[in-house]
Amino acid sequence: MPLTPENLEFVQSMAEAGAKPFHAMSVAECRTTFDNWLSHLPPSEQEMGSISDRALPAAHGAIPVRVYTPEGFGPFGMLVYLHGGGWVIGSLDAYDNLCVELAARAGVVVVSVDYRLAPEAKFPAAPDDCFAALQWVAERAASLSGDPNRIVIGGDSAGGNLAAVTALRARDAGGPALCGQLLIYPVTKNAGDPLPSRIENAEGPLLTQQDIDWFLDHYIYTGNETDALNPDCSPLFAESFAGLPPALVQTAEFDPLRDEGEAYAKALEEAGNEVKATRYDGAFHGMLCFPTLLKQSEEMMTEIVHWLRRRVQ
Question: pLDDT tens, 294-304?
Answer without folding.
Answer: 999 999 999 99
